[in-house]
Design brief:
It contains six helices and nine strands, in the order E-E-H-E-E-H-E-E-E-H-E-H-H-E-H. The protein is of the alpha+beta class and about 260 residues long.
């Protein structure tokens, strides 16, 4: 009876060392099987963002200064095919940047299947997480950013209109009209730009992140750095200002008359 164990991999960041460790374990298994006189195949496939693809029976593409260091990886597949007692036993690990990965172990020997599945599963689970709670789910992100942008537009309108009314530039009727106009306009803009902001964050923290290759080609890492800078320089100061304005009105009086 043939047994198959499979696992869907998501929200993980794999360094070159992670991939090499799993590949080395399977390559050593292939070498041991050949020494025992069995027919055993080991193959590594690396696809890159520039359209090139490599296939090898060793891990030479991952040596320092090799293809995995000089090009941006898009996917990695590691396969082992062991003909034990003339019955095929297989291991297939597939990782695609920005998508979900898979681990599939299949064979007639249940102990062999469970052993290899557990070993690789534990290695996969030990990899660093690739995302953050706020970057999970496109719809959730879209709604979150739409709400935040609409709120920011409304609060800005309240602040600016109140300031202008305070210095006598606007009367009450005009100020109310401007608040309504900016409120509706902010909602429309939020619906349009909230999705773009959500897509940006999702690409910065992809489900599967192959975190190696040239730094200048690592789009996810660069976007994480930019998002961190925006949060540090813009978002946090604005939030602190709003908290001060809302919670400590005597120290930071509202501009609304």
């Amino acid at each position: 009876m043939r047994q198959t164990n499979s696992f869907e991999i998501e929200r993980k960041r794999f360094t070159k060392a992670d991939v090499v460790a799993m590949g080395t374990a399977l390559m050593d298994e292939a070498a041991a099987a050949r020494q025992a006189g069995r027919r055993c195949l080991f193959e590594v496939k690396l696809s890159c963002a520039d359209g090139t693809a490599y296939s090898a029976e060793d891990l030479d593409v991952f040596v320092d200064g090799g293809e995995a260091d000089s090009k941006r990886p898009e996917s990695v597949t590691i396969e082992l095919s062991d003909y034990k007692n003339e019955k095929l036993q297989t291991v297939r690990l597939s990782l695609k940047h920005g998508w979900k990965g898979t681990l599939v172990v299949s064979g007639e020997d249940a102990n062999w299947v469970r052993g290899w599945f557990t070993r690789l599963y534990e290695r996969v689970e030990s990899a660093a997480p690739s995302d953050r709670w706020f970057a999970r789910g496109t719809l959730r992100l879209h709604l979150l950013f739409s709400y935040l942008l609409a709120l920011a537009a409304f609060l800005t309108a309240v602040f600016v209109v109140g300031l202008l009314q305070g210095i006598g530039v606007l009367d009450e009727r005009t100020g109310t009209a401007l608040r309504v106009l900016v409120g509706y306009g902010g909602a429309i803009a939020a619906a349009a730009f909230g999705g773009r902001a959500a897509d940006y964050l999702e690409s910065a923290w992809p489900s599967i992140d192959l975190d190696f290759g040239p730094s200048h080609l690592n789009l996810a890492r660069r976007r994480r750095e930019k998002a961190g800078a925006v949060i540090l320089v813009v978002v946090i100061p604005v939030l602190l200002g709003l908290v001060q304005w809302l919670l400590f009105p005597r120290i930071f009086p509202s501009p609304v008359s």
